[in-house]
């Protein structure tokens, strides 16, 4: 068996063990604590089907819904189309199983009526959740050994991998239809891209293509807009061989190419006589609240900034253990000698970029702030590579990871 296949099997088992165990977490006491439907698998196990999931599944079943005025998922058309591409094959497979008697009709009949025709699309979206989480784990492993210059220890990596698999995001959203698994994948993908741009000159020559691809990803999940500043960083790396006017011209070109997929999507909607609708911006004022800088008096805007920063700060206790571990790791990195492996500038840079983006978002939830955790784990990994914990320290780290998972399972909520 190849190392890659073996790794995929191990990571799959870890995902299944961790996420299935969440079925046995305490059920919500009232319906006011979650948005959606709590599905009871039996008297002591179940999970929440998020309220956003129904619209995602219906849109995947009928993609033409995206062309309707004020369609809720109109700003995420590629994610809906991904759901279509996996949902229909899963639905056909279910019909085959039912026809062959391998799937009793009574099982489907136990589902809420509105979910029964959407079961295949639900399975398809859960498979997407699995793929995104598996991708995040593989990226974390790659970056772990890359940043530690091969000095990383497998048992330390095993402990670190528990945290992206077991947390409030996977607990509430792995078994439902939602986009929250991107919370774990996007930060790692951004770091990987930034490292590629710095270390591989041919990647910097492909910036226009990357801008188009990144702009397409922004139609998949909103946080992919951060690909643009990463690409502009890659352009900045070309400054020794490119004049400043040329760099500015190329930066403008990258911005245009990055926005082109969204502009084309808006244009297609207009051809259909439909005005583009961004549910997140209109309902939650994501980022658009920053227009107040020139639309309202400065004192009023600064008051709003202070209120938003306080709301963002209120989400930080959810990742307090990781922030504390990172502070200790930062001190460790500053005092350890020799100073190897080095801390790449891209890691703290992306932590600052992502933190600033989350603070400016205008919509604050603990699950969104958890996007900082994958990068914080890599800071800890670098510190542990500089000062290896030894056998006793490694055992303690593994015990801490296991304790974290047990606490996640036994704790009440979150449910959405």
From TrEMBL:
Q: Which positions, given as ranges, span the membrane?
A: 7-25, 117-140, 147-166, 172-195, 207-231, 251-269, 368-385, 392-410
Keywords, sorted A to Z = Membrane, Transmembrane, Transmembrane helix
What name is this protein filed under?
Glycosyltransferase RgtA/B/C/D-like domain-containing protein
- The organism encoding this protein is Hymenobacter psychrophilus
Q: What is the organism lineage in this UniProt record?
A: Bacteria, Pseudomonadati, Bacteroidota, Cytophagia, Cytophagales
């Amino acid at each position: 068996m190849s190392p890659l296949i073996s790794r995929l099997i191990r990571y799959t088992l870890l995902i299944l063990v961790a996420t299935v165990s969440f079925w046995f977490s305490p059920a919500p006491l009232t319906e006011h604590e979650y948005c959606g439907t709590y599905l009871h698998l039996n008297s002591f196990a179940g999970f929440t089907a998020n309220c956003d999931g129904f619209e995602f599944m219906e849109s995947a079943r009928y993609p033409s819904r995206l062309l309707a005025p004020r369609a809720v998922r109109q700003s995420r058309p590629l994610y809906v189309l991904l759901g279509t591409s996996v949902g229909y094959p899963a639905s056909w497979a279910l019909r085959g199983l039912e026809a062959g008697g391998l799937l009793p009709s009574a099982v489907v009949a136990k589902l809420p009526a509105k979910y029964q025709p959407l079961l295949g699309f639900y399975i398809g979206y859960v498979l997407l959740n699995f793929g995104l989480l598996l991708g995040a784990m593989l990226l974390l492993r790659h970056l772990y050994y890359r940043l530690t210059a091969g000095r990383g220890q497998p048992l330390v990596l095993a402990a670190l991998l528990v945290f992206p698999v077991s947390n409030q995001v996977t607990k509430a959203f792995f078994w439902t239809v939602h986009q929250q698994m991107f919370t774990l994948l996007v930060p790692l993908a951004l770091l990987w891209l930034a490292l590629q741009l710095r270390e591989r000159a041919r990647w910097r020559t492909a910036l226009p293509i990357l801008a188009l691809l990144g702009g397409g990803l922004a139609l998949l999940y909103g946080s992919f807009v951060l690909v643009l500043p990463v690409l502009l960083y890659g352009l900045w790396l070309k400054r020794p061989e490119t004049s400043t006017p040329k760099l500015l011209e190329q930066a403008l070109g990258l911005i245009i190419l990055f926005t082109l997929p969204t502009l084309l999507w808006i244009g297609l909607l207009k051809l259909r006589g439909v005005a583009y609708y961004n549910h997140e911006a209109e309902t939650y004022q994501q980022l658009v609240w920053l227009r107040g800088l020139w639309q309202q008096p400065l004192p009023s805007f600064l008051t709003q900034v202070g209120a938003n920063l306080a709301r963002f700060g209120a989400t930080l206790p959810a990742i307090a253990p990781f922030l504390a571990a990172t502070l200790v790791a930062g001190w460790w990195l500053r005092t350890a000698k020799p100073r190897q492996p080095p801390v790449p500038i891209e890691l703290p840079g992306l932590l600052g970029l992502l933190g600033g983006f989350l603070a400016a978002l205008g919509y604050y939830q603990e699950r969104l702030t958890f996007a900082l955790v994958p990068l914080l784990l890599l800071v800890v990994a670098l510190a542990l590579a500089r000062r290896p914990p030894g056998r006793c320290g490694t055992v303690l780290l593994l015990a801490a990871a296991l304790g974290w998972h047990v606490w996640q399972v036994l704790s009440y909520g979150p449910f959405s």
